[in-house]
Amino acid sequence: xxxxxxxxxxxxxxxxxxxxxxxxxxxxxxxxxxxxxxxxxxxxxxxxxxxxxxxxxxxxxxxxxxxxxxxxxxxxxxxxxxxxxxxxxxxxxxxxxxxxxxxxxxxxxxxxxxxxxxxxxxxxxxxxxxxxxxxxxxxxxxxxxxxxxxxxxxxxxxxxxxxxxxxxxxxxxxxxxxxxxxxxxxxxxxxxxxxxxxxxxxxxxxxxx
Length: 209
Fold this sequence. Notes:
The chain is an alpha+beta fold. It has four helices and eleven strands. A hairpin with a 2-residue loop joins strand 5 and strand 6 (131-134).
């Protein structure tokens, strides 16, 4: 009888061990490699529509690769208050390892935005007459609808230089997008991922431009 109980206990521990390993691997893949997500915002219409499902690539952050203009990225949402400079402000900082784990890995109570990279570190950005200019050259934005114009949302973010270590990002749905025009440029270390592919709906499966 004792042998039978020990055998059952051993089997339970083996299952628990397998489940723990699977959870750890899933969290590691989610944080360092990539993860699926659902579009929940209107700021990237018509490129991305609410309810569409994406695969996010997190290896750019993991291996400290650079981002390019036109990349669609996700990043930790900064303070919604208007920035006092060209740099976005981040008020919340976890105070211990457990808060860091639940916030950054489990993403509990964490909000993220999805936008498109427009200005890179060191570039001069101007928003005028409904257009965007990078280093004095008008930016061609073929992904925007013909009727879309770009208007500033903060007086000190009309003519500025993107700080080193930061990027300037906006949504394709310029009128309905809360983006860097409001809260300032995003630190590159706050960027979480880059959109890899759209896998739902199936008729739109593939790379998102």
